[in-house]
Write a structure and sequence with these properties.
By secondary structure, the protein is of the alpha/beta class. It has two domains: about 60 residues, DNA polymerase, domain 1, CATH 1.10.150.530; about 270 residues, Aldolase class I (TIM Barrel, Alpha-Beta Barrel), CATH 3.20.20.70. Helix content is about 30%, strand content about 20%. It has ten helices and 14 strands. The strands form three sheets. A ten-stranded mixed β-sheet has the order 3-4-5-6-9-10-11-12-13-14, covered by helices on one side. Helix 5 links the parallel strand 9 and strand 10. The longest helix has 15 residues. It is elongated and about 70 Å long. It binds S-adenosyl-L-homocysteine.
Length: about 350
Amino acid sequence: MSPVTNLVGMTPAALEDLAVELGASRYRGRQIATWVYRKGVCDLEAMTDLPKEFRARLAEVAHLSLPAIERATPSQDGSRKLVLRLEDERRVSAVVMPDEGRVTLCVSTQVGCGYACAFCLTGTMGLDRNLTAAEIVGQVLAANALIGPGEERVTHIVFMGMGEPLANYAALADALRVLTDARLGLAYSPRRITVSTVGLVAGIDRLGRDGLRVNLAVSLHAATDEVRSRLMPVNRGWGLEALMAAVRRYPLAPRQRVFFEYVLLDGVNDSPDDARALARLLRGVRAKVNLIPFNDWPGAAFRRPPLPRILAFQGILLEAGVTTTVRWSKGEDIGAACGQLREPAVA
Ligand code: SAH
């Protein structure tokens, strides 16, 4: 075990194993989990119900560390973009979005992203590295600590920040276990957590098999392979047929649906024919479509369609019986909207 092991992000089961490795009982591991996840305490010295010798032993092999909030930029719409500094000085962002009694946190899973979707600013960075489970869970703990007592804590978590969650599967799964453990973790209902993917078929299957029960969101953005492959290189490996088959296999609870994100790009994927093709593709799928009008960034090769075109697209889907909302992204004025996240890797 390396001396830099971060206890934050370890599953309660792994903390129990660690306690045993250090010659203590599993109960000590559960106590650590309770301090970190239930009480938000990330200081070994403050864990006063742990025997002093055990704490000393623990301090030799492990530490507790949260990403540092370097900046918290408020948007006019009430959301806040957090720039978090990691232990190696790399930076990722998370976005806090209060809305009608909910507080949704959008978290990152990688520094940069390797999937190079044509319309996405993060995609221009390439992949730098995966985040650890500690850094993923740390975003939630850091955001909750920032929100402070009295204010509403994070109620919903969406894995829609920088990176491709399913390309960092092991860390994602550990983070989800910590976030959803009702007794020793952060106790979020899996139904309040949404994992969004470019469409990694093997990852979708694995998420289903592992029984993590979170909501699945698929970044679709086109209803034909021709257009989708142009916008999303990932589609050249896993085309729509394989993707939709994986979606149909994904285990859903009785009223649960799969979310589909569809960024509307002027003159590219926003015609009435595109809308009809999308409705056909989703036939028989328990789906909810979120249309995201394109968010601009400097140097982008796309534009947002005019409002009537957006509403016409939505109208066709509704007419076909597909639940569809237009998601006006939050935090556009502060570079926090969908597809606008890019932090300098090292200052
Ligand atoms: N890699 C995962 C998680 C990122 S979610 C995924 O692709 O699903 C971020 C969402 O914002 C994705 O649906 C992405 O396609 C979308 N997006 C990217 N750039 C955008 C932009 N400029 N305007 C609007 N949405 C964008």
